[in-house]
Amino acid sequence: MKRTLFILIVLLLSVGILWGMKRNSPVVQTAHVSEDTPDVPQPVITKESFSIEEGETFASVMERMGYGYADMQEVLDAGKGIYDFTQIVLGKNFVIRKKDGVFDAIVYDINSEEQAVITKDSTGAFVVTKQDIPYDITEKEVHGVIDSSLFLAGNQAGLDDRTILELADIFTWEIDFATVIQKGDSFSLVYEERTRDGQRGPSGRIFAATFVNQGKEYTAVRFEDPDGGIGYYTKEGDSLQKPFLKAPLKFSRISSGYSTARFHPVIGRTTTHLAIDYAAPIGTPIMATGDGTVIRASWNGGYGNFIAIRHNDTWDTHYAHLSKYAVKAGNKVSQGDIIGYVGSTGWSTGPHVHYEMVKNGVKVNPLTVELPAGDPIKDEWRSSFEEQKKKYIDFFGDR
Ligand SMILES: [Zn+2]
């Protein structure tokens, strides 16, 4: 009896061990497992792409992917509040992903950062989620010298347009990229290069940068503060963000500077020009140079279509000769918001924006007026800032 029980226990244990082995490692042919073979075989992932063609609807793409009307309707319902599949864009793709030949998901890129993912739950019902696009990220350092334009130098250094614009944005409060960039100016930056399935994707964040303009060096470090704010600071910890942008247009040229006496071609006599004129094609977006409230967006004589923004008790800015308005009087605007578009209305000889800064009711020269600096790193964040900066010590170290 005792012996029978013993055998039974041994048998049960063996079954248990075997069961455990079976569950934990599907690969039991240990003889064939070499050191660099993972215990669990990776599923074979296949992807099939369906490009959205001219005149297509979500229903027709679904049909091409092998789904019927009921499936399409179910996905639309499952996507409510997450992504509206009736908004799909011509030329973009739906990708059916299979794992070992079994349906895993249908993926649609909403933009460069997010994708809508259609999966099935255990009951076989469609589920829609929004997910960050999974890029492979490598941190890259590049350097460029400007010969003719920032864009050209950036492209030659291997940067995409988006990163070049972002680089200009980081320094936009210190450097007026519309007017002061010179041959020989240079830049360096550490940024995220992102790839997906071996293809290069849009670049990601810029972590550190320097820009040398006319011999003067500017530095920038990205800092995410403990409250979730993200900003760029000099390597000393001063904010790069000023209450005003240097110019209301991103890229343009000055066609008329600030002057207390100039000959006005339209009115035919000498007058003052207490503003800066930036020439740019009709329709170029005009940005609010600072946070504030629109106090006027209407015709104003020789100014043509005109916008005035009150920023605070001290400061106003004016924008004239617009072709179109993007705001109304009473609207609150943030720095960089598009308020209207370049035109040639009023006393104007060609498309440009006439930009005035008014300090305590007096027009001042936007190019030379001393602007208040942004807040430096808060004392309680200083150690966290120094910690984040440490990663780029070599980057800043050799400059
Ligand atoms: Zn003007």
Automatic annotation (TrEMBL):
Residues 272-366 form the M23ase beta-sheet core domain. Gene3D superfamilies: 3.10.450.350, Glucose Permease (Domain IIA). Its cofactor is Zn(2+). Coiled coil: none annotated. Keywords: Hydrolase, Metal-binding, Metalloprotease, Protease, Zinc. One of its GO terms (cellular component) is cell envelope. It is found in: Cell envelope. InterPro entries: Cell_wall_metabolism_enzyme, Csd3_N2, Dup_hybrid_motif, M23ase_b-sheet_dom. Pfam families: Csd3_N2, Peptidase_M23. SUPFAM superfamilies: Duplicated hybrid motif (SSF51261). One of its GO terms (molecular function) is metal ion binding. One of its GO terms (biological process) is proteolysis. Residues 139-258 form the Csd3-like second N-terminal domain. This is Peptidase M23. It comes from Candidatus Magasanikbacteria bacterium CG10_big_fil_rev_8_21_14_0_10_42_10.
